[in-house]
Write a structure and sequence with these properties.
Protein name: GntR family transcriptional regulator
Pfam families: GntR (PF00392)
Shape: globular
CATH superfamily: Winged helix-like DNA-binding domain superfamily/Winged helix DNA-binding domain
GO molecular function: DNA binding; DNA-binding transcription factor activity
Domain HTH gntR-type: 11-81
Strand order of the largest sheet: 1-2
Strand content: under 5%
Largest sheet: 2 strands, antiparallel
Number of domains: 1
Number of helices: 5
Keywords: DNA-binding, Transcription, Transcription regulation
Distance between the termini: 5 Å
Helix content: 40-55%
Radius of gyration: 17 Å
CATH class: Mainly Alpha
Length: 136
């Protein structure tokens, strides 16, 4: 599984892992039914503690982006499309809070509403496949 971590960044490692798995799902790189590597194996590949990967997997499970395997083997997999999480009030609130903080900073830096809107649209339309590529 290819995941790139910024160990010097402000975003916790488990959140970076979760974000990149979600991006893989959004881009279609991670297809429904795809089994993810065990937390232990991914942690070894990333040279981090397995508890960090467990935390990422648990948050993705709690949000509905991953489901547990039921075929007698342990592991997490991407659920069928119809079981994927939908928009929730919790997500919308979290998104609005994050965008609000960025809008405030952008405004303080002299960014116009049009520039902010264009930046949001550009990111939304961007090729997300770079996050979550080669998740084999």
């Amino acid at each position: 599984m290819f995941i790139e971590l910024d160990v010097q960044g402000d975003v916790p490692l488990h959140e970076q892992i979760a974000q990149q798995i979600i991006a893989g799902i959004a881009s279609g790189t991670l297809k429904p039914g795809k089994t993810l590597p065990s937390a232990k194996r991914l942690a070894a590949d990333l040279r981090i503690k397995s508890t960090t990967v467990h935390k990422a997997y648990r948050s993705l499970f709690d949000e509905g982006f991953l489901v547990e395997r039921y075929d007698g083997r342990l592991g997490m997999l991407v659920p069928p499309t119809e079981e994927m999480p939908r928009l929730t009030e919790r997500f919308m609130e979290r998104m609005q809070n994050q965008l609000r903080a960025l809008a405030v900073e952008g405004r303080a830096r002299g960014m116009t509403e049009t520039e902010f809107s264009k930046a949001c649209v550009k990111i939304y339309r961007s090729d997300l496949s770079r996050m979550g590529d080669s998740l084999e």
